[in-house]
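Milestone M4 deliverable, item 7.
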Amino acid sequence: MRAWRARLSGAALAVLLAACAFVNPTQIAPGTPRAEVLQALGQPTARYPLPDGGERLQYSRQPAGQAVFNVDLDAQGRLRHAEQVLNESLFAERIRPDVWTRADVLREYGPPARVIGVHNFKGDIGVWRYADGPVWRLLYIDIDPTGVVRRWSNGDENLPDDAMEAP
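Output delivered:
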């Protein structure tokens, strides 16, 4: 029993240290050089070139997490802007149906948590998990077979009843 408790305590400590090690990208000062950004955040989950010669470092917490951080560097490799983009207040101003392509979606949100299909739409529907305060939500982006975004919507994430019960 003592060995089991020691292993459990060690696992709990590892989880706690990992949580403490997380650096919120939005708290890194603009102008910070790329090397320092990478030192603070680690390797990104994806990298995308930006039109002005800069680079986007993307840190996705999908599929289990509820955030995607885009860290934009200017052409000189200095932090220009960092934000958590799975933000309900930004969807309407950013997602451009009939204009955006699959590449635009990936550059903005990274790979979805999952891809689904429905009988009345011939294409893929990407699903991203995000939190709106205490409410767990889903962003759906419908991409037709030619790779063009046709619409987007959002809704609540359904959780199993036992996930809501207190231990």
